[in-house]
Amino acid sequence: MDAEILWFGWFRADIIQEYAELFWTGLRMTVGVTVVCILQGTLLGLVIGLARLADARHAVAKTACRVLLRWPATVYVSFFRGTPLFVQILLMHFAVVPLFLNPADGWLISGDLARDLRQDYGALITGIVSLTLNSAAYISEIFRAGIQSIDRGQMEAARSLGLSHARAMYHVVLPQAFRRMLPPLGNNAIALLKDSSLVSAVGLAELAYAARTVAGAYSRYWEPYLTISVMYWLLTLGLAWGVRHLEARYGRGDSR
Amino acid sequence: MGAAIRVEHLSKRFGRLEVLRDVSCAVAEGEVVCIIGPSGSGKSTLLRCMNGLEEASSGQVFVHGVAVHDRATDLDTVRREIGMVFQRFNLFPHKTVLENITLAPGLLRGLTAAEARERAEALLAKVGVLEKRDAWPNQLSGGQQQRVAIARALAMQPKIMLFDEPTSSLDPEMVGEVLAVMQALAEEGMTMAVVTHEMGFARRVADRVLFLDEGRLLESGTPAEVFAQPRHERTRQFLSRVL
Ligand SMILES: Nc1ncnc2c1ncn2[C@@H]1O[C@H](COP(=O)(O)OP(=O)(O)O)[C@@H](O)[C@H]1O
Ligand SMILES: [Mg+2]
Predict the structure, then answer these.
(1) Fewer CB within 10 Å: N-end or C-end of chain B?
(2) How far apart are CA A238 and CA A244, in angstroms?
(3) How far is B191 from chain A (nearest CA, A)?
(4) Which ligand is nearest to the Cα of residue B38, counting in written order?
(5) Which of A60, A160, A173 to mutate to test the interface with B (most CBs of B within 10 A)?
(6) Phi and psi based region of residue B234 (left: phi greater than 0; alpha: psi -120 to 50; beta: remaining)
(7) How far apart are CA B36 and CA B164, in angstroms?
């Protein structure tokens, strides 16, 4: 034990140095999973949010919209917001993924490929799928609230010019809704970044997993957990700064 | 025949509320029709049924012979030919004045960016707000916003213009500039249906005045007829309050 790198006599920086590679890998995994899940969750969330608002003129299409789009979307959102993410991750890892990837009889992939995939990428697949599905539920609510907050007159003005519903949405309503959605989307991204630590429970080698490994090896807790705390904190501060920057940039011209 | 807009036995209910009751009227090609009546009498609803923003509960609405009330009709195509101006302007706040005007023609009339811009600038000059072309809507006065909204509707080169109380949310000193633009449009021969409380404008510009009361069409005649010799007591009462 090198006495020079003992801070205040209790923080052994050498442990962090020794495992720097592991923390670095973990950081990249955390950031990578977060970015991928934000992007996928935003796309899926937009689809689900629009599904919850789906409506039509014709009576038959109206019923179809309700039964095929609005109800499933509502149940989806209710489930993913109404159950703990941790439980969703466990369910995904030990029940849902084995259903789709199974050496014996996978719904999607069977045989050796399924075994290898689960061995090498099981935790990653679980992490990306659970976090995407979960954040999509929250993001769809942000989209829905954002779209509903835009004055009805905007859609009517666009439609009165002859724009289709889809084009009015795309050119007029969504760009305005997006501005209002930036702050809650930013909060959601920060929550997702932090929640990605839960996937360490099924063995995804991200930041929290790195800390747990180090803690286990040395039976020291301040060093690894304080280190990743600072790393998470810097990441969330960076995200918050980025969101504020976007708001300043896209906030122009918005009256009301 | 030759009617730009024909409304036949139109009724409209919102739930149990009957907003329009068996309204029949027509706007001829090149005609300016002003729709007057107390607040809540169904004027906006009548106008909005003309371009399908509201759906008729029963009855028929034809625009240039096309059945707007028919669910099989492609309303997007019909609406390209009908401009609409709203009480609260409804400019797109995230687009500049110029972008507000070029959006629809660019998408729907196949204009190049340069052509759309040229047309927009000509219209802005016409309504007198050319110098604001690069401003954001919230940087304009109410009167300027409404004139931009008129230019936006005209950029689609519609054959009919609908106005829903275009001056009702303006400060008094700005009413004149918007009415002047509308009057110029009427003099060029535009077919117009105008919901308004500006009786002076109706008297001066309208070919015909419709009076709506509790969802019923009570009067339809020249301004002289309706203002000087209303047939119904309700009309007399209304006019005595607003004139
Ligand atoms: N979308 C709607 N849903 C329910 N009621 C409505 C709706 N639009 C208008 N109304 C009601 O219909 C009546 C007539 O409205 P409107 O046509 O706007 O009258 P006006 O333009 O003459 O003031 C009012 O009582 C109004 O509250
Ligand atoms: Mg009205």
Answers:
(1) N
(2) 10
(3) 16
(4) 1
(5) A160
(6) alpha
(7) 11
Tokens coding A177: 């809704």
pLDDT digits (tens, 9 = 90+) for B171-197: 999 999 999 999 999 999 999 999 999
| Four-residue CA torsion sign, B125, B129, B131, B134 | negative
Q: How far is the CA of B47 from the centre of ligand 1 (A)?
A: 11
ipTM computed for the complex: 0.95
| Burial readout B20-39 (b: 16 or more C-beta within 10 A, e: otherwise) | bbebebbbbeebbbbbbbbe
Dihedral of alpha carbons A228, A230, A231, A237, sign? positive
Give the per-residue pLDDT at A230. Answer: 96
Nearest-CA residue of chain A relative to B138?
A: A255
What is the per-residue pLDDT across A15-67, written as a single tens digit (0 to 9) for each?
Answer: 888 999 999 999 999 999 999 999 999 999 999 999 998 888 778 888 888 88
Instruction: Provide the 8-state DSSP code for B130.
Output: G
The whole-angstrom separation of Cα B208 and Cα B5 is 14
Give yes or no for a contact between A10 and A222, defined as CB atoms under 8 angstroms apart: yes
Q: Chain-centre distance of CA B38, in angstroms?
A: 17
Instruction: Specify the pairing of strand A11-12 against strand A6-7.
Output: antiparallel
pLDDT at A256: 39
Q: What is the pLDDT of residues B60-80, one digit of tens each?
A: 999 999 999 999 999 999 999
